Input
Amino acid sequence: MKKIALALLIAGILALQGCSGGGRPPENKDINTETGTRTGSAQESAGSMKITIPEHEPDETTGKAKLSLQEGKQTEREKTLTSGGLLSDRTTSGEKTGGKPAANENSETAQAKDQQKNQTPAGEEQTESSAGDSGKKTKAGKKKKKKKKPAGDVEIRLGFAGDLNLSEGWETTEFMDEQKNGISDCFSADILKMMRGFDLFMLNNEFTYSLRGDPQAKSYTFRADPDRVKNLDTLGVDLVLVANNHIKDYGEESLLDTLDTLDQAKIERVGAGRNIREAAAPVLYKVNGHKIAYVAASCAEEHEDTIWTSPATEDSPGIMACYDPEPFYQAVRNAAQKADYVIASVHWGYEYLEYYTEEQEAMARGLVAAGADAVIGTHPHILQGIKLIDGVPVFYSLGNFWFNGEDLMTGMAELPLRIPADPKEKPELIKTRFIPCTQRGLYTSEASDTGESQQILQHMRDISFGTEIEADGTIPTQE
Output
């Protein structure tokens, strides 16, 4: 209990210094030492907010077409993946756009990448990252036999990271602008390779892209020049979370500019839109005859006196909010009717509190009951625990990925899927894995040092309250 009390004291102090103004945890709430959750309800001023979304409609999208969101006739976005799992409309010589050698790379680096690429022909199984299954031993000391992939099946790797900040005048952006190779010099080579290697990679876009609007009267406002969006492609990002508490920092104009900027850059975005239909709609990816859906929502300002980031309505832009979680559950149900695998992303919880709350766990259970196959959390700016709910992985917070100058533990989530050739079969989660990383000195890298990596993994075990995490970051897929 002393350890928990000290952790809460530190969390409270850090929350006052938090870089995003998400509110400090209430002091009269207690930690349940068995579940690790905080007791009590935090839904006060926001609790009465009611949002409705349309019921499920037949899926009208086909092939690779990206539908016009401006027309308001259909809000879903669907893209097709090739047999190798790569985005078919963002490929050059079989690689994601983000995986191409950058213009500032020397010829030796580019040649080495080409050689590596040629070792894995398109359509064959992707190479696992550094701590994959190959040669891994079980507790009994025997080598695990690699499961043979049935003919016609495809394996893809879904990757997730936390908060990214490219705001003008912010320390990350100023540091990036001083680097010879820009944002590529802000991440280690192993992290860049990993991000670009995911078949689908998602992170939290914790700022707005715009040159217009006035800052809201809040502690921190983040706005980037729209030209900064090209950095997402450099990092290999396919999809961003825009259901957060900074996407509207400079008013409605800045939100609309952000949507336009991402659309023009061909970066998919989820959780905000020009109306509630668009904000609640899933982003769909089609691979091997199956569909993977992403949906997202935010309740990040539930601990604030003011809801700065307004929810979308039938005729006004905003985010998909989940202060009342039922509309978000309905969005997940809708996505589950359209897709074979559903990822729900939530911007929630208290900033700088490493323990997830009872409210977070209750919502996670609601999302799983509604049909989510994975839940990815952001907003606290530090890592929170991992839990399996009915076999569904829940990452309560992936923390800052590359967000500010603080030195802290962070990480990525990896979900490799087997996509069966038989359309009647459901995609199979091969394993769940947490990849320990650090944000240090405005530089993010994989915690490749064994001692540091194991220290982060032990920390994750401590705050995950009973969830088993193996030495390579794998979470066995049973609760």
